Give the backbone structure.
Amino acid sequence: MRRAHAAWTVAASVLAALALQARAQPADWPDPAAMTFPPIHFQAPAPQKAVLANGITVYLAEDHALPLVQGVAYVAAPGVYDPPDKVGLASFTARLLRDGGAGGMSPDTIDEQLAYLGASVEASSSDHFASVSFSSLAVNIDQVLSIWQDVLTRPDFAQARIEVERQRQLEAIRRVVDNPVQLAVREFSYRVAEGHPSGAYPTAETIDAIQRSDLVAFHDAYYAPASTVVAITGDFDAKQMLAKLGATLGRWQHPLAPKPTIPAFNEHPAPKVYFVQKDVQQSIILIGQPAMRAYTPSYDAFTVADQILGAGGFTSRLFTDIRTKRGLAYSTGSQLTQGFAYPGIFLAYAFTRTDATGQVLHLILDEIARLRDEGVTPAELGQAREQIVNQAVFRDTSVAATTERTARVQLLGLEPGYFETYLQTVQSITPAEVQAAARQVLDPHGLVIMVVGNASAFDEPLSDFGQVVTIPLQ
Amino acid sequence: MRQPREARGPSLAPRTRRARPVAVALVALATAALVLPAALAQDLASRVHTATLDNGMRILLVEQHAAPVVSFDLMFDVGGVDEPPGLGGIAHMVEHMAFKGTTTIGTDHPAQERQALTDVEVLAYALANARGKSDPALVDTLQKEFMAARKQAQSLASQAPLDSILSVNGAVGLNASTGYDTTHYVVSLPANRVELYARIYADEMANAVFRSFYEERDVVREERRQRSEDDPQGVLMEAFLTEAFPGSPYGRPLIGSASAIEGYTATEAHAFYQAFYAPDRAVLVAVGDLDPVKDMATLERYFGAVPAHPTLHTRFPAPVAQTVERRTTVTFQAQPQIMIGYPKATYPAREAYVLDLVDALLGQGRTSRLYKRLVVQDQVATSVQTSSSFPGTRLPDAFIIYALPRAPHTTAEVEADVYDELHKLATEPVSDHELQKVKNLVRASTLRTWSSNAGLAQALAYNELFAGGWEHLMGDLETYDSVTAQEIQAVAQQVFAAQHRTVAVLQPPKGGS
């Protein structure tokens, strides 16, 4: 019985009663909802821009708060360059830049040197670019810069480490199905971006197909001064840093191969209900469709719609309705990924108990339809606008974040000042414009629905929501 | 995906306290090592302003003028370890409730709402009693009345008012988390919103209203499904803690069992809140673009109005000495995982510091002994992690090793490799070079955690609350520097003995994948 703690509760209640006597807000406390504050205008100092002799743009910003230096090279060698039969190649290449030895130093030597210096060099690849980064104590910067540059420009791709990485990836693939959220996201991304490499995921076959010669060729083709932008921040003298980079990275000469042909993005994937049967307590529900490219006018308006629908946290419609009012989920909301060369993806989600799966699907679909059909209220829009504008100050709270973002913006080809333009757009946006953007993206008949769950206990068959395609659990 | 109000389960990441101590600068060459730390420590100390209010609350204001923002961390000396029997997870439930608004934030009808919430509570107890008497008709009637009363109470509340006030003011990182040791509430705001912060959070400390309690109880139940029932790591961790910590609060699920959660009442949660949430158990740290005079006065004015009241002090059972290996296997539809743990002393015992270095030596980075042996050389595992303070630091805790075997290799092969490496540590002294390397690693990684306002705020709050003062953030470096190879060997011999270990293995059902 649960009465074991009854005595404890009584004791605590006595304390509560004692405390209650003194409780009330002092009369002079203002109403927090009515408190107003002048807007804060804060522009982080722009990083210094320089171009090395080989054409690499470098953004530098001194920051002497701590004796640290960090830097990153962004390279236009993204995951969407993966050939269909070798999905995972861009990531595999990045991993091996770091793990496969470089500049004649063995993998062990690099690992040991960096560890002893308390430094790090890491490499990874995303859908939009690859990054090779470092972090170092200021006092060790020369050694770390040297390793970082070798990793970026002179990787050795040691065969033994290729096999370690291959086995690591195969194990990761085996384990994806252990995690229902990871599984749902993988399958949703694949379906919503049907036929486009941004939705492709590595399988045992594609990982097994990757050979050392593929890694060498991928690096050779796409890692070059013409595809690289660098950002470095921290405790250094910018002039000296530039001289160091000029003497080393600035001498890297390598031609850039033409971009591979990437299939066109199908903006209208088949509106189906994809389902994975798994013996779980909670259904993972993802609903979405392709949206638009980032920082286009309709994108600016749609971010506001998305904020109100589910991306705005506690106050968003999905959070309020599904979580706060009904207690049907811990995780729920929506998000919009940023697309540059191809559209971003809009996604609404909720993880709910098995026997509420149908109920929650209806709630999400209803909120999507309501946003499209009824738009947003001026009060909601006002809140979303204030939130976006007031949070903007946090974009520049870290010198490193500002510098690195500036470098990424150049690589992705965004116009300088795009964010200021975005803020201005948001500030003057109307409910009608927000609704128009919602109507442009959200097509109730075009939604891709993904559910991972235990169908034997659903409250409603998924066939009520469209044509069901069952994906076998591998 | 953003996960607001995240209840942090036991995390594999080291705790803030001294596990990753404050670092100061790492230097490759020992010659320079003595200069930088002192200068950095002095610089930080010069920017910290402290106040202890009449009600016992402590405030640390840290000037950091690089950008016009401020990060707040309000930390309480209460956590899962303070829960009474039968109410496992109530600390976390209270964390979900403690910031749902107050008598003046969140409703325009406080008196009516109070009555409506009382009606809900009376029906909650009536329903629980009816269920106990197995009277289906009565249960059905009461269930309907209960739902209607909840709807009535909801109609008197404004939805998410506290959150929306903070959001429109530009809040980022609005969150809270519950650990076994402590509970804390964090948010960052534009720097001119100090008074707004103080108005809201001081009010929550004094006048919290636990509105929508039963809806939130369902949310927490969903959180448990997500973190502890469908996630194999969560499943394994609960099994490990149960086995490794019999009789200790660390042996209970932090989020609470399913049946415990489903039985919570608002009365119980509020009693827990009253029993532990008092100003003399709280530390507020604000780091950012602050005026030490004006902003401190604002914070003092609001938080000083929070009434002091007596609180409960939890008595902890003495740890039971372990004399034989403990072992448990969980069957779960997933690839195998393994967690191995050894009981150990916590701070300020010297052993705890020595084991922090062992943690770095065995588990931190690509050159750590376990990574090299299990992942690169023998390739029996795809990943291996260690923690020297699991799952907390207030009570005697454990040194743990967590690994994912790589098929077709088994957890038994992982175990064999781990034990062999632990044996080496106990029988062969660590070289000077390797010892210096891990000292460098520990210092450098800590220095990096200082670079964010929020990270620094959390570290200062934890040290102020549990380490005897925020200054300890800087005081432990010398302790680490003084650890010798002989000490590491001696501690390894003592701690990593076979009869002390607990092994938890997660395996798929036979014939399953």
User: Anything to note?
Assistant: The first helix of chain B runs from residue 35 to 47.
